[in-house]
Write a structure and sequence with these properties.
Number of domains: 2
Largest sheet: 6 strands, antiparallel
Number of strands: 18
CATH topology of the largest domain: Creatine Kinase, Chain A, domain 2
Helix content: 25-40%
Distance between the termini: 25 Å
Shape: globular
CATH class of the largest domain: Alpha Beta
Radius of gyration: 24 Å
Structural class: alpha+beta
Number of helices: 15
């Protein structure tokens, strides 16, 4: 089986959040979002002088990134893209728009939980349309029924992170297949294996068990005019652009598995041979980490064969050479890598690095953590002001790195790249470059890495498609 070709795939999403008041009580989205919605830029219509015309009550067109009500939930609609980086940039803009709108209200903040229970009094005070489940009915490739409860009695609400897949205009074969139900069914099954099951390994939130009693089950989908919607995931991947990069990258791979399979290289058939689809369904529907890990280990040989080529790294978040780092990554809770779920922190601290892909995260941040856990490196984070570094070392770091030295209690998810240097005292230091700041860690006396002196403008910057 030769390496899988990665054709372009147009992906989008409509992730959801909740709104809460000053006391932390969940309230309906209508308290903040107007009926026409919110958009990053209200420039979709202009008069003869070029001035923006804003029509209250008129919904924003689909090609304008915007924010809408969706029952109790707030839903954001980024513009679809074939590039993970561009898609993430759009998501980042909408999340900032939502953050600023909540700030301006001086009443509300955004809640990122995947499942909440709304107060009965608050639910019944909302408009009738807001008391209903916002989405149109879902369908399931395994024949399961979805959402059988009365929305005005059942007060749990969940925040979805659904994936939309559609035409690109680059390949008529691909475009036609994406609106053909038989082909879509095949893709949904492969997405359950590569996306849904894999996400169980990351999103260990026990609330997923309750959520999936009615919503977001394995095989859940909806056909659309432009393709289809995979409705299994929660909004957990909004915690970091790295996770968004992984989810969209795996989605692209799943589509290519089906549409690039041939008699000679039947990627779909070979993958399906390795797993029991009942186990895939069960792992997703019960959020069973152990079973999901068992399923994942079964497909590792396929990944090593179909996704081995280093020249394709710019298209692949997960491939043969980074499986070791991925398996270390999933042993830790999501908070270990990406901090807490405070929306303002997520937007300002996590998403400001939206240009970085998941493969970069594995090769730099997770690989660094893995080396430490294996005892190959015993890094000690220090405060330079209180350190035993001599004045030449301190001066070198301040001058040559040319950034604010920031060392203590730095969440791993905020470190975006690293480089090793030799200090004037011949000590070795690891420099993590984050935005305009540098985080320095002094390494043990025994050198492990080949290093050289570098300046800030020589530090690597990785961009992922």
């Amino acid at each position: 089986m030769k390496p899988l070709q990665q054709n372009r795939v147009n992906f989008g999403s409509d992730p959801e959040f909740f709104l809460q008041d000053e006391k932390g009580k969940i309230v309906g989205s209508e308290r903040l979002v107007p009926v026409e919605g919110l958009a990053m830029e209200r420039t979709y219509k202009k008069d003869e002088r070029g001035n923006t015309i804003y029509e209250k009550g008129n919904p924003f067109p689909i090609d304008i990134p915007h924010i809408v009500r969706d029952g109790v939930q707030i839903e954001i609609h980024p513009k679809a893209n074939t590039c993970r980086q561009s898609f993430n940039g759009n998501l980042y803009g909408l999340m900032r728009t939502l953050l600023f709108a909540a700030r301006e209200s001086k009443k509300y903040t955004i809640n990122t939980k995947t499942l909440i229970k709304i107060d009965k009094k608050e639910l019944m005070s909302l408009d009738k349309s807001s008391r209903q489940f916002g989405c149109k009915p879902s369908y399931n490739i395994y024949g399961e029924k979805t959402i059988t409860v009365n929305p005005e009695v059942y007060r749990f609400r969940s925040a979805g992170g659904h994936i939309h897949v559609g035409k690109t205009g680059y390949d008529s074969k691909f475009d036609n297949a994406l609106i053909t139900q038989t082909e879509v069914f095949k893709i949904i099954a492969i997405m359950d294996i590569l996306v849904g099951n894999t996400c169980v390994l990351i999103d260990k939130d026990k609330n997923q068990i309750e959520r999936r009693k009615n919503y977001g089950r394995a095989g859940e989908y909806r056909m659309t005019s432009y393709g289809f919607e995979y409705r299994t995931l929660s909004n957990f991947w909004l915690r970091s652009p790295y996770l968004s990069s992984l989810v969209m990258g795996l989605t692209r791979t799943a589509v290519n598995v089906v549409l690039n399979s041939t008699k000679e290289d039947n990627y779909e058939e070979e993958l399906l041979k390795l797993v029991n689809m009942k186990d895939i369904e069960k792992a997703i529907n019960t959020n069973d980490y152990k079973l999901a890990l068992h399923n994942f280990k079964k497909i590792k040989p396929w990944i090593k064969q179909a996704l081995p080529n280093p020249t394709c790294k710019e298209y692949l978040p997960l491939y043969a050479d980074n499986l070791k780092e991925f398996e270390h990554f999933i042993t830790k809770p999501i908070e270990y890598w990406f901090g807490n779920d405070n929306f303002e922190r997520i937007v300002n601290k996590e998403w400001d690095i939206y240009t970085r892909g998941f493969e970069t995260f594995l090769s730099q941040i997770v690989a660094s953590d893995l080396l430490t856990k294996q005892g190959k490196r015993d890094e000690k984070r220090i405060n330079l002001k209180d350190s035993k570094l001599n004045s030449k070392d301190k001066k070198y770091l301040t001058k040559e790195i040319n950034g604010i030295i920031k060392v203590i209690n730095q969440p791993l998810g905020e470190i975006t790249s690293n480089t090793h240097i030799i200090l004037p005292s011949n000590k070795e230091a690891l420099v993590h470059y984050q935005n305009s700041e540098s985080i320095v860690e002094i390494l043990p006396k025994k050198r492990i890495f080949k290093t050289k002196k570098v300046k800030t403008d020589e530090l690597p910057s990785t961009v992922n498609n």
